[in-house]
Fold this sequence. Notes:
- The protein is an alpha/beta fold.
- It has helices at 2-16, 77-91, 106-118, 132-138, 154-159, 176-190, 204-224, 244-255, 269-278, 291-298, 311-323, 364-375, and strands at 62-66, 95-99, 123-127, 146-150, 169-174, 194-199, 231-236, 260-264, 282-287, 303-309, 334-337, 350-351, 394-397.
- It folds into two domains: 2-174 and 311-337, Rossmann fold (3-Layer(aba) Sandwich), CATH 3.40.50; 176-308 and 349-397, 3-Layer(aba) Sandwich (Rossmann fold), CATH 3.40.50.2300.
- It is built from twelve helices and 13 strands.
- A seven-stranded mixed sheet has the order 12-10-9-8-6-7-13, with helices on both faces. A six-stranded parallel sheet has the order 2-1-3-4-5-11.
- Helix 9 (269-278) links the parallel strand 8 and strand 9.
- The relative contact order is 0.15.
Amino acid sequence: MKKRLFAVLMAATMVASLVACGSTEPATTEPATEEAAPATEEAAPAADNTEAPATETSSDLKIAMITDSGDITDMSFNQTTYEACDAFSKTNGLTFQYYKPSEDSDEARTAAFNNAVADGYNVVVVPGYLFASMIATVADANPDVTIIALDVSQGDFEGAGMTELPANVCSFTYQEELAGYMAGYAVVKEGYKKLGFLGGIAVPAVIRYGYGFVQGADAAATELGIASDVEVNYVYGGQFFGDEAVTATMDTWYSNGTEIVFACGGGIFTSAGEAAKKVDGKVVGVDVDQTGTIDGLYGEGVCVTSAMKGLAATVNTTLTDVLDGNWAAHSGKIENLGIVSGDDPSLNYVQLPTETWSMKNFTVDDYKALVKSMADGYVTVDSNIDVMPTTAIKVTTFDNIH
């Protein structure tokens, strides 16, 4: 599988770089019942395959993507998944359409899935842990529909009553603690000493990002001999979007000396960005390279880096295998993706973006050396999410904002 991952990753990374530019209006599924009307072409047009696709195909695959509680303009998880599916479909001459559930509920997500199947879509891509219950409801009843889940873990499935995945389902999780570590290590090496972590909801992926960030910051501070000077404020917003209460907390942090905040969880970065721009503060993005998005909204240089995972690469790789008849490589599996190359960080499923690199003290070469050390096992990161890592630096935790 690794050879195929390497072959498609560079093209997929180009897809991910488009995240900040999307502005397509989301579709809706009305209402979330068995009688719900399917998304129409006016609401969610299928991919326009008249623009000379790069390859001809006679495949009968029809690809659908369903959004979670966000939409395809969230500048994060949904948008990246949408753009990856759309680009793959156009490249391969396939029909594609996305569906937005009428509300944030398992019933609405199930209705959206049923609408997609009724419309003839036989490959469905879903991003995020919220889809575990939907998959548990629909997978066995639709054995001819291939379901590709991103970031739905074994625990999520077990919570939905699934002890193992059926043959028509696969899921991918990521070693977020590694990406979080890279970001924490980088910003301390760059010179930041007063750090913050603003998580969305305290689900495993967000916790791994946060605990990895703390471990990376601690390692860098210890190496520099400044552990007593480095501090991290740590809080969860309790939601995946910013609001006045979250922004108020960020205002307090920045005004009290916090220099940079890792905003980890969908649109919650908006509250960190709004607070940061008032005092020339900085932000670390998440999941994708959010430099263009955050800097575009809050000022050039606000986003220092982003802790990324290869959503677009995963979509591209897996859809390629489906198209090529290699579904067996993924059937019924949950694959945990992380570092696959110590020599070329761009081939990894967790990474920092080098195309928009702005750090001066911590260089791209320094980053590559760090990744090599991680790949070779000289640097290890604890993935345990049950307890905050023990550190030499000071970590102050706060009650959830919501």
